[in-house]
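Hi U.,

Before I forget, here's the chain from the pilot set. I'm dumping it here mostly so it's searchable later in email.
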Amino acid sequence: MEYMNLLQRIDHKSAEFSKGQKRLAQYIMENYDIAAYLTASKLGKEAGVSESTVVRFAYQLDYDGYPELQKAIQVIVKTNSNSLQRMLLSTKRYQEKGILKSVMITDAERLRDTIHGGVDENQFNKAVDMINESRRLYILGARSAAYLAGLMGYYFKMLFDNVIIVDANSTSETLEQIYNIGKEDVMVGITFPRYSKRTICALEYAKNHGSKTIALTDNMESPIAEYADCCLIAKSDVMTIIDSLVCPLSVVNALVTAVALLRKDDVEKRLMALEELWKEYDVYNRSIK
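Structure:
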């Protein structure tokens, strides 16, 4: 059950549901965009069942209570909603408050969620060691996650050679770039709702060919998690047409920093050489007025 999303869990457990639980399951599947932001009491009222039925339903699906079930419903909203539905949902969330503060507060809340219940420090340390010991490091993110992959790759290329930012233009081109990936290599796959099939496919390919794999995603029910030796969980949110990637960006920053400190002496030499290069070719503006 660990890697099943909410809809898969409902399908898996449906034969065991009581009459009230079946009614509740049907309501959630048909109205997940509404159910995602209701309290247990209000959800029960909307579905025509008691609050206790809602709580028991959460445990029946192997969640640790209603708050975890509600988060799972919200994942379905983020995963299954198209761009127009996202726009309509977020309009309702922000129409009563100022947009600037609302967005920043949401980002701050997701950062707190990530610190207290997201990325696991043991998994983070494992990822750092895997990257540090890799022969080649492949990094893939599609669509908006491509910018996270690009930033991660940009900084890791300062630290060591053989860093490959995988082009995600098509599945075939992606697989062509990683076709000879092996057991001494590491691949990082980055995907957030709506999850990229291309990234999932590539990480599956890498794992099946013996590579060590790292997933940077939003929860353990993410479809990429089952192909990862190491999962880094960073919370995300949907803001109109924007995927908020503040938390995964923070995790990327932490990964690069941790690997740089592990390779401190070598990194200092590389940075000294780069500074000379940047100075020689006048890369940065040095004038101060």
